[in-house]
Amino acid sequence: MKFISTLLLILIVSGCQAPHKGHDEPKKQLQTQLSHSSPAFEVVTLGDTGGIEDGNLSSFLLRSVDDENFIGLDAGSLVNGINVALQNNAFDSLTTTPDAALNPTGNILQHHIKAYLLSHGHLDHVAGLLIASPGDSSKPIYGLPSVNQTMSDTYFNWQAWANFTNRGIAPMLNKYDVIDLAPQKTTEIKDTALTVTAFSLSHPLESTAFVIEHDNDMFVYFGDTGPDEVEKQGKLDTVWRYLAQQMQHKTLRGISIEVSFDNSRPDNLLFGHLTPKWLMQELTKFHGLVEDKAQLTNMKIIISHIKYSLKSGADPRAVIAQELEGANALGFNFVLAKQGQVLAL
Ligand SMILES: [Zn+2]
Ligand SMILES: [Zn+2]
């Protein structure tokens, strides 16, 4: 697949070069269009809300299309998310012979999820992992040191839950190998074709953005985050600058980022979250930093963590979608995350 698309690229680019001699722009546009015609990653949404609907909490699976091994990006809902995804035929592209001793849910959980990357320790991002842990297979959990510490102190402490990890309070059940990620340092994710680079984000407790890479392709997953102008720590700016710099020689295939509340939410009640207004302001800054703007308008921006409402007649998804599109002067391609949905990026 890779070979064919490379060959195609050479043929098309060399065929089109003559009339545009001395101009790099058409070649660059072609490369962008072509690289988007053949997907690099597959993302399955296991949970799309940031509360209060248990069974549908922040959780995504991501894999390179060259490999059938997923990573879990947060795990607010896990088994329920896998079940909904199975009902939607989200795993039909997998060709590995299933383990006959397990049902389809068990096959995905135990054989196809090779690692978890946890953005922070809030329950809406980790509850599914905790609840599924007795039936899970052995695998690593990656996180920034403070996130891993929160998991040990708060959950894997023999009070909230048994210690399924290899650190903290004895006895350690050693199912999960807890691996600290050094901020902004690229690390290979075991048993996958992917690498991760973690960036700290502003939230009531430290949160994380994970930049996932495979060959020349990137995807970025943002855990919960407040906007820089409110948080005053410049943490999103650091991620935007890193991505813009990487995009000079790599392709950003997609972004997953939170929008928790609609624009009626006052800034003093954001609690480290984004609204459509604040996301648009952050993306506008990013757009200004990126050289090849076409990369940004071609790729999908997955909106996650919309809070479920109990109010009669309220539809926060519709309001947020409308507010995003109403302010979308730069032409971003927004997709609201939906539990069970599979996206090729
Ligand atoms: Zn959250
Ligand atoms: Zn949170």
How many structural units, i.e. domains?
1
Structural class, by secondary structure, is alpha/beta
- Give the cofactors and ligands: zinc ion
| Shape verdict | globular
Q: Please bin the fraction of helical residues.
A: 25-40%
Question: Can you walk through the features of this model?
Answer:
The chain is of the alpha/beta class and 345 residues long. The protein has a single domain, classed as Metallo-beta-lactamase, Chain A (4-Layer Sandwich), CATH 3.60.15.10. 33% of the residues lie in helices and 23% in strands. It has 11 helices and 14 strands. The strands form 2 sheets. The protein has a 7-stranded mixed sheet. The chain has a 7-stranded mixed sheet with strand order 7-8-9-10-11-12-13. α8 packs across α9. The chain is globular. The N terminus is likely disordered. One zinc ion (ZN) binds next to loops. The site of one zinc ion has 4 residues, from loops.
Write the layout of secondary structure elements.
Elements: H1 2-17, H2 25-37, E1 41-47, E2 59-64, E3 70-75, H3 79-87, H4 104-112, E4 113-117, H5 123-132, E5 139-143, H6 145-154, E6 176-180, E7 186-188, E8 195-201, E9 207-214, E10 217-222, H7 228-231, H8 235-246, E11 251-258, H9 276-289, H10 293-298, E12 300-304, H11 316-326, E13 333-336, E14 342-344
Parallel strand pairs: 3-4, 4-5, 5-6, 10-11, 11-12, 12-13
Antiparallel strand pairs: 1-2, 1-14, 2-3, 7-8, 8-9, 9-10
Helix pairs in contact: 1-2, 3-4, 8-9
